[in-house]
Each structure stands twice: as C-alpha cells, then as structure tokens.
Specification:
The protein contains 8 helices and 5 strands, in the order H-H-H-H-E-E-E-H-E-H-H-E-H. By secondary structure, it is of the alpha/beta class. It folds into 2 domains: about 80 residues, no CATH class; about 130 residues, 2-Layer Sandwich (Nucleotidyltransferase, domain 5), CATH 3.30.420. It starts with 7 loop residues before the first helix and ends in a 5-residue tail after the last helix. GO terms for molecular function: nucleic acid binding; RNA-DNA hybrid ribonuclease activity. Its EC number is 3.1.26.4. This is RNaseH.
Length: about 220
C-alpha cells in the first residue's frame, strides 16, 4: 500500500524505543494529532469519564485505553488534516529531550516563524531510555514536522545537546546508539535548502523543554 494511502496517524507515527502498552497507545493517538500535545491531551481528557484526565492519579489505565480507543476509531480532528505553512521562508526549530531518573524519556520540538509558533510537538520516546537518545528523537521529531508542514528557505536549529551537535555536524564519531534516528536526521537535513545550528546554554530559554517533559510523563504511563 502506498504510504499516502495509509491513515494519517500511521503516516505520522515515528519510531520509538520500548514503551508500555498504554504509552504506546497514547503515542498512536499523538500521531493522529501530528504530535501536537495540547489538543491530543485535551481530547483524551474530554473522553475520560468523570473529572479525571490523562495524568489524574484517579484515572485508571482501563479508562485511558477506552478513551483512546474511542478517539482512534473516530474521524481525524479537522485541524489535523494535511496542511502546510508555505509562507514561512525562514523558521527556527527548537528541540529538546528529557529523561526522568528512572528512564522514561520524551522528546519535544517547537517550530517558530517570526517568533510565532507554527507547531508545538511532543512525544514519548521510551520507558527505559536515556537523555541522549531522547535528544536525537527530538531533532528527528522537529525535522519530520518541517518536512511535512512547511517549505522554508532556511532553518535555524536551536539545540542544547553537544552530543548530538558533535555527532550530526561535527567530525567526531559518536558512541551513542542513535538509530533509528540518526539516519533519518541526516536525510532530512540534506533535503533542506540551507540550515544552521545554534547551541543553547542551560540558561537559554528553550520552549521545547516543556513538550519533552510531558512526553517523558507519557512514557512513564503503564503498564496498562
């Protein structure tokens, strides 16, 4: 089957490390929403019976699964139809990875044009995944969104991981097992007309950080 004949969620779904069945199901829904965290989580919260929500301690795994199953079986949200923003000639892509101490990791990306967000994205990466891999996944997430949503003349990538910077743009060999992200990252970068990277210091604001943190929280869901 041609990729464009697949459901939108299947086309958007990105590779992930090991996730619990519940976190995997949430990730499937995020793909349907093109990894826009806020509308996806709002939809889950509205579908959960009662006053709970995705991160409410009183919401059971079964309730979350039921809500997600109902949403996946419904029509794609109107705002998630195939759309692009071709007017943005220069964009800034913020990326960040986040991992809790015991391993749940998430990725975040924010695309801006003229300081206005085009997309705020987040996703779980793995339930036992370190921060380095999450940083690669974040860059992959952002570049994939750029490839499908806009056609910029130039991109500035703002990133705080020197591990990723040295591997992707440097001359040194990385010891981090980054597959399946690194090859896709290289392919996306080679398709851009022009791009540059900026290293963010710890004190620099990074709007992708909040998205990555929520992604890590989703990766911690389970074992339902």
């Amino acid at each position: 089957m041609d990729r464009h004949d697949q459901p939108a969620g299947d086309r958007e779904r990105l590779p992930a490390e090991t996730l619990s069945p519940l976190a995997t199901r949430v990730d499937e829904l995020l793909a349907l929403y093109r990894y826009e965290l806020t509308p996806a989580i709002d939809a889950i919260n509205a579908a959960v019976a009662g006053y709970g929500g995705l991160f409410d301690p009183d919401t059971s795994a079964a309730e979350i699964r039921t809500a997600i199953d109902d949403l996946l079986e419904s029509s794609p949200p109107p705002t998630q139809q195939e759309t692009t923003d071709d007017a943005a000639s220069r964009v800034v892509l913020y990326v960040d990875g986040s991992a809790h101490s015991n391993g749940p990791a998430g990725a975040g990306a924010v695309i801006q044009a003229d300081e206005t967000p085009i997309a705020r994205l987040g996703r779980p990466v793995g339930s036992r995944t370190n921060n380095n891999v999450a940083e690669y996944a974040a860059l992959h997430l952002g570049l994939q969104a750029l490839a499908t949503r806009c056609d910029p003349e130039s991109v500035e990538i703002r990133i705080d991981s020197m591990t990723v910077i040295n591997h992707i743009w440097g001359d040194s060999e990385s010891t981090v097992k980054a597959t399946p992200y690194s090859t896709a990252i290289t392919d996306h970068l080679s398709a851009l007309p022009t791009h540059e990277w900026t290293h963010l210091a710890d004190s620099d604001p990074n709007p992708a950080d909040a998205q990555a943190t929520v992604g890590a929280d989703i990766a911690a869901l389970g074992p339902g």
